[in-house]
Design goal:
With 88 residues, the chain is mainly alpha-helical. It is built from three helices and two strands. Strands 1-2 form a two-stranded antiparallel ribbon. α1 packs antiparallel against α2. The chain is extended, with a radius of gyration of 17 Å.
Amino acid sequence: MLILKRTTRHLLSVGRSVPSALPAHEEVQRAEGLRRVSNYYHFKEKMKGKFTGMNPSDMKKVIEMNNILYMPYRVPPGSHVAIFRLGE
């Protein structure tokens, strides 16, 4: 994970330091995309033992069954909370 963190930090710093001919909204979208990729790999490494053997197709089935409850408020760090009802 150490190499991955260096890589994502490097990508984020390159994204900020390289002058761009992109319009401002496209630069914001690019930075947001890089941030999301960084968050994904950070979460994947942090929760390595909790989500083993889970495929995106499994999650798609749960989402299509409307078994998700999103809490109306965020937790102090700012993330959303969702409750999944799995299986019967």
